[in-house]
Amino acid sequence: MKKTPLVTSLLILTLMVSACSGNTGEGENPGSSGSNGRNGGGESPLSVSMSLMAGPKTPNSWAQEALEAELTKRLGRDVSIEPVFLPDWSELNTKINLLMSAKDTRPNILWTGETREYLKWVDAGIVQDVTPSLQQYGQEIINYYTKDTLFYHWDPSGKMYRIPADVPEASYMTTMIRKDWLDQLNLDVPTTLDEYVEVLRAFTHNDPDGNGKQDTYGLSGDNYYRSLIPFFYAYGVDVENFIRQDDGSIIFGSVMPEVKEVLGLLQTLYQEGVIDPRMATSANSNDQMVNDIYASGKIGSFYRFVDYFNPGNSAALSFKKLNPNGEYIAIDPVAGPNGFASDQPDPGIGWCYLVITDTAEVDSAVQVLNTMAEPETFKLFTFGREGEHYEMKDGIFTPTITPDEGNKLGLGNFGWYIQRKDAANVKNTPEVTQLFESKIETSQPMRDRIVVFKALDRPVWDKYSADINKERDQVFWSIITGKLPVSAFDEFVAKYEQMGGKEIDAEAAGLFEKQSQEYEAYEAWYSEHIEPYK
Amino acid sequence: MRDRHLYLLLLPGLLLILLFRYAPMYGIVIAFQEYNIFKGIMGSEWVGFAQFARLFRSPDFYEIMRNTVLISLYKLAASFSLPIILSLLLNELKHLVFKRVTQSVIYLPHFVSWVIFSGILISFLNPIDGLFNAILANFGSTPIDFLGSSAYFRSILVISDIYKEVGWGTIIYLAAIAGVNADLYEAARIDGANKGRQMWHVTLPAIRPVIIILVILSLANILEAGFQQVFLLYSPLVYDVGDIIDTYVYRVGIQEANYSYATAAGLFKSVVAMTLIITVNKLVKMSGQDGLW
Fold it and tell me: Residue B30, by phi and psi: left (phi above 0), alpha (psi -120 to 50) or beta?
């Protein structure tokens, strides 16, 4: 009798311990491919682990097999890819930092947009210089990226530890306006901000869709300042960047006096019901939400992606389905009171990049990347096989599979790995390619004004920027929606000074000067180390 | 020591707590460092209370603290009182099937994630074509941007939280009510107490210890105003009433990889929570009630 509790206790204990240990049995992480990538040159098989963020993240996909076959053929050795799919954006940086913190979890090639930790990786010696390998095996890569783009990835020590992964077109957004509404209301395409504002007012109040209801808006877009670019840029200001002034000084765009005028105008338009009130809510940061609004056909104008003019774009398809007679056209940027006009320029740095970690053999990794950068390979894993997955008729790309089927094939899985934006991006129609080209010129005026900093280490800006940006967003959106008077802008400028504004401006000026000197050293390096190898 | 073998059963639990709750606590020290993930905890630079000083000197610290405490207190007031009232009402239902169905229906929202729930809320509260504004429009009202309005934002947080959690909150109270001695109700009835009197004089005093324990425990969460909910619903327009410690730390600490700063903010919250629990527990005991320990 006495033994019963002891036996029962031990039995339960054993069960619990075995249950717990059962969980640890799965500790072998198939993703930790660290040492596999060290198959050096020669004909030995090559296994490359790469972190992937783009596309549907389909495991064991057709795209992966097609890429492996292509790499095997081109490199003359068996190549297998071990994809490391990254989690969603909110957890991305944490995951990348964890992956990079231990050698057995570091992928051979890391895709990332994270710049905070990058310098620590360089200091810790866990990322490798790619210059010699680029010279030998990276012609496609060094030919594709411009000298200016590579500058931002160059280390002043004369090394290059990262390769840009996706550099957008020189300008990829445009003012778009309802052509059928202009015709309906007998209005001309606006060329100045004043004309643009009058057109937006007419779109709001003059029943452009002729349904007898007051249910249209002049302007809509997401909750980012980019949707308001026709207004800010007409005055030559960008509230998210540092702007070079006529006297050569550099100041934060948010505090330029012209911003006040723009906010005043936006407030008036918001009160008149010209601006879609959904723009002021964070829910509209979501592209899907804006695409739905776009498709609804109740909005006269957007500042939105050039890609919407591709017939295969999902927002454009939905719009056309719901509004068969509706038509958006892209117009040149409208000119402000001083005749200044510009589209939004892309900084040309690339928003994400690739590093080859200390777990990989650099030559092999660069060979893989270079092959992926070649137009034919890029088209293969991005769009599939011509004739099988898509057709080209008169330069127009037409998929023969549904988006769902494309996802199952893993098309897009290897996106943002030297993402080509030239003719290899066959999805663009000739008209869209032409539009992108014209944007290089129309975005130049602001490109000349905006200062793009190379330095990743900006201690003063890092210290104050979160608080300043919060204050700016709160004040500006409150002014636009009429919660605060326009005079609140002056208080914001005063507060900017108190929140470290002077230190920030001094840091910006210092960095810009240092960067200009660095560029001279870079030019010498580029002509010696890159130019001859192109 | 008659049951000493039974203590063996305690061992795995204790081990788990020591291993997974106490052992990792050494990581708290990074709140006093400028932590560098590659130098590790031992190699990172010690900065004393600099991270805490930065938190307290942040220009918005007062606003963030005020928002956090206010939103928490509103939620606490609602989550403390409404489930009790609802449990008392549910307890009086005589039709067993109806009671069970009602219970299941009011538990359901608890299982819907905030991501889904906030999506529903955003579309219902949309100023252009949302359900609520459509109803208001029928009464001649102009559209209201509920989620962009400082006047409504906190109320929306509290009401949506009540809607989602009030049913779930009744579970413990219903269990406690079920344990009340039936003789007491009989005695009360003989003394002429109606249903209302029975609730007031029998049920409530009987479940008082449970209520007190739950209130003390919920005070531990006074600086947890609901990160997911706020993060998914707020916007710059309502930063003045909606930005809380967690959303601030997310923007400044996690997104910018300032792990030490984020840890310092977390430690600050824990210290406040612990102080509150100890104080309230002491107050409860001083008033002659049973506390947590």
Answer: alpha
Asked if residue A31 has pLDDT above 50, the reply is no
pLDDT at A14: 52
Q: Specify the amino acid at residue A505.
A: D
pTM of the model: 0.80
Q: Do residues B5 and B130 share a domain?
A: no
In the predicted structure, residue A36 carries a pLDDT above the cut 70: no
Q: How many CB pairs lie under 8 A apart between chains A and B?
A: 102
What pLDDT is recorded for position A34?
Answer: 37
A137, A34, A52: which is closest to A96 by C-alpha? A52
Per-residue pLDDT tens over the stretch A210-226: 999 889 999 999 999 99
Cα distance between residue A529 and residue A146, in whole Å: 14
Q: Give A170-192 pLDDT, tens digit per residue.
A: 999 999 999 999 999 999 999 99
| pLDDT band (50, 70, 90) for residue A440 | very high
Strands A163-164 and A353-356: antiparallel
Domain A34-168+349-421 annotated CATH 3.40.190.10: yes
DSSP letters spanning A163-214: EE-----S--EEEEEEHHHHHHTT-PPP-BHHHHHHHHHHHHHS-TT-SSS-
Chain B residues whose beta carbon lies within 8 Å of the beta carbon of residue A6: 5
**Ramachandran angles phi, psi of A136, nearest 5°:** -85, -40
What are A305's strand-pairing partners? A173
- ipTM, interface predicted TM-score of the complex: 0.74
- Paired with A164 in beta bridges are A353
Domain count, chain B: 2
Q: Shortest CB distance from A124 goes to which of B38, B145, B255?
A: B38
Nearest-by-CA chain A residue for B151:
A483
pLDDT at position A40, please?
Answer: 42
Which residue in B37, B60, B240 is closest to A101 by CB distance? B37
Task: Give residue B131's domain range.
Answer: 60-286
Mean pLDDT of B218-228: 85
Beta-carbon count within 10 A of A147 CB? 15
At B141, the amino acid letter reads S
> Under DSSP, is residue A393 helix (H, G, I), strand (E, B) or coil?
strand
Taking the Cβ of residue B3 and every Cβ of chain A, the question of whether any pair is shorter than 8 Å is answered with yes
| CA gap A78, A177 in Å, rounded | 52
Under CATH, which architecture does the A173-344+463-515 domain have?
Answer: 3-Layer(aba) Sandwich (3.40)
Helix (H, G, I), strand (E, B) or coil at A401: coil
Residues B29 and B116 both lie in one domain: no
**DSSP per-residue codes, A286-334:** SHHHHHHHHHHT-EEEEEEEGGGGSTT-HHHHHHHHH-TT--EEEEPPP
Q: Alpha-carbon torsion B141, B144, B146, B152, what sign?
A: negative
Nearest CB neighbour to B237, from listed A120, A280, A498: A280
- Residue B92, helix vs strand vs coil: coil
Cα separation, A135 vs A525, in Å, equals 13
Q: Which residue has the tokens 């309230």?
A: B280
B228 touches chain A (CB under 8 A): no
